[in-house]
Every structure is written in structure tokens, then in C-alpha cells.
Design brief:
The protein has one domain: Thrombin, subunit H, CATH 2.40.10. It is 9% helix and 46% strand. It contains one helix and nine strands.
Length: 138
């Protein structure tokens, strides 16, 4: 029997970590001037994140994800690579809870990507960004 081939949309360049608890800070997704609050973060890696939003976004949208907590703010850039409606177990379309989106985090913001990943996964903020936007330890 042939082995099942992976879905190309799910090919990832890094293993994503599922969250045991939601981040303590505020997550917001920006598409241009439009701000969308993040309802839930499912998983994260330094190169991608899966979020549940309260508004629809289109595949291919260029986004900025901002995380604010305890006096720090981390901003990363990304591209929406997939989106689908998140629904309750019954088929009533009026019961849509929001939309799940997969976001590829751009390598151009890799220092900030790692800062976001470590801050959320380890609940630490010793990996911060200096005024020029470069990540550093202290």
C-alpha cells in the first residue's frame, strides 16, 4: 500500500510548538491600517504561526503581527499562506467563530521572529529588541 503524501500546504520549514497556554500579552494583526485582534494562537515557530482571528483575511496578504506584554512590543512581518473558517460542530454558517490563518514569518525579520517565539514559548523577555530593531540577550 502506498504511503500517504503530505499536503503541500502543510509543508513547513520548522516544527511548530503547540501552546500549553495562551500568551499573556496582546496579539494584534495588521493588514495595512486594518487592525484585527487575535482570538487564539494555536502554534508557533520562528518561521510561522497559526492564529484564530475574528475577521477574514485573504491568502497572500502581507501582515504585521504585534505582541505587547509587560512594557515590551515585538513586531514581525509575514504572509498569510492559508485561511479557513473556524466553525462550531454543526453546519450553521451563522455560528462561525472566526477564521484560522497560517502565517509564514518573513526571514527579513528573523531576529524579531526569534524574540517573539522565545517570549511566548518561554514566557521570558530577556531576548529583546534594541532601538535599531536588532535582537539581543542581556
Amino acid at each position: 500500500m502506498p504511503t500517504k503524501q503530505p499536503n503541500p500546504a502543510e509543508r513547513r520549514s520548522a516544527l511548530r510548538e503547540e501552546l500549553a497556554q495562551q500568551p499573556k500579552g496582546t496579539l494584534q494583526l495588521y493588514i495595512g491600517d486594518r487592525c484585527i485582534d487575535v482570538a487564539w494562537m494555536r502554534d508557533i515557530s520562528p518561521v510561522g504561526v497559526c492564529l484564530q482571528l475574528k475577521a477574514a483575511v485573504d491568502k497572500g496578504e502581507q501582515v504585521q503581527l504585534k505582541y505587547t506584554y509587560n512594557g515590551i512590543q515585538i513586531e514581525v512581518l509575514g504572509t498569510v499562506v492559508w485561511a479557513k473558517a473556524a466553525k462550531l460542530p454543526h453546519p450553521n454558517l451563522l455560528d462561525t467563530l472566526g477564521w484560522w490563518v497560517g502565517i509564514f514569518l518573513h526571514p527579513s525579520s528573523i531576529d524579531a521572529n526569534f524574540a517573539l517565539y522565545r517570549t511566548i514559548m518561554e514566557d521570558r523577555n530577556d531576548w529583546l529588541l534594541d532601538e535599531s530593531g536588532n535582537a539581543f540577550y542581556w
